[in-house]
Please model this.
Amino acid sequence: MRRTWIIIGLLVVTTASAAVYQKGRNWKEFHFTGTRLMADLAHPDALIRTVSLSKLPHDLLTVPIARDVLTEDLAFYYEQNEDRLGLFGAVKRIAYEHHLDWSDRLLINILNEPAEVGLWRDGKGALRHYAIVMHRNTLTRALQAAADVALKDSQLKRAGEIDTGSGKAAVFALEINPRRTFLFVSQGERIVLLSDPGMLFNTGNKIVPAARAAVTGWLKTEGALAQQFALDGVNPEAVTHTLAVGTPTLALGYGAFLKGFNGLRFDFGGSWSTSVRTSQKGLSDAMPGDARLWRAASANPAACIVLPVDWPAVQRVIDKAKPPGIATFAMLDGPALACWYGESTLYSPVFTARIKKGQPASSASMQALADWSIASGGTVDKGSVGNQMVWRGTGNTAALATLGDYVVFSPDGALVDKALDTIARKYPSVADQLPASDTTLALMMPPPLSKMAEQEIFKALNGAADANLLAAAQTHLPARMLALAAYPPYRLELTPQRKGEWQRVEWRTAVTPR
Model:
């Protein structure tokens, strides 16, 4: 989504060129700095399906909170991005040197076409790699003049070919700068663009068979890129844009432990809507909420989210690690709740879960879990008051506790203490502030959330290379966080509306009592 503009130059320079083959003008070998990108092209981590790439940034800003926090800079960003400026400059140079009559309006019109964009995570978990699949449009005939010119240009080379079963599809590479090279494949009425050669080629500069199969499917079958996200129930005539994200990305790689939750989707058809993808059994069976967890969560969080944890799967991983005597996770039941608080940090949420009915927590098992999870090579101090037990690491702020049928853990022990007071009814809970039920999936409270976000961003920009970003943040961020803090709390509530594997979620606002 961040670089959808790249299709401008690539289509103009090379759409018709894919049909022209000149032997001896092969693409130079791509020199990888490491191994090839380990992106499974058959399984994108996220998807954008849109009737117009150029309208997507504007329509994102129709959400009031996005417009006030991100402002129009979200749309202007694409015009000032370094890669975009370099690409646009390359296209204009080619047009000038080879006497091609390409107007800026012609370039912009190409983005007003339907497209599918698949996104994949890089080694740091960011959605940095992408593929764009588009139809050739009515401008194709006008671009035929570029065929001979493109293959004579220094920046455009033939990189190989793909046998699609319906003929040979040429693969072309356009080098924008030493850091950026794009690939595209064209056959019939469809075009595929890849953001990095490593998505298709291995370190020997050979096309990876699995990647070839995926690209062939996109060229031959309408909607093949989107098949993984089960969008059959989405009416393309009523929905202008669809943004879908899979669980592995949302869960930062821990999706295997989230039973029944398979992704999140946003649709725009005049206004934005939200849906959650669940197992065939439905969210009521696979990912239930639990109002009791909201009654155990301390008031005034920055954000909270229900986690449909598959506790047996967690226990199996623990068993393979072979820590002695840890059977705690087998005792847990239902979802967990993760909450962040403004007085703590982004990396110190508090987790609350419940023990199966009739299976009280074993002190020995909890002690073993505490020794393994928070001791850090030291010892763990245990304290107990009535049926409340707390384990704290020596010299460590982390804490693990049980009270009744609740288990609470946080890297910030102060949050555990506050949660215990909430369970004991000595401190107000989220449920005392806002309506919360078994259908409440998440909560966002903008005032403490904005405070935490501002603190974390400034804390992250502490390196010598971050001076410019820090200055920009100091100039613009406080005003944006004030705009965010002005919004009321939002609750995500599951509704009965269901289409296939997707179930509708409503964003509901509420005013907290003073």
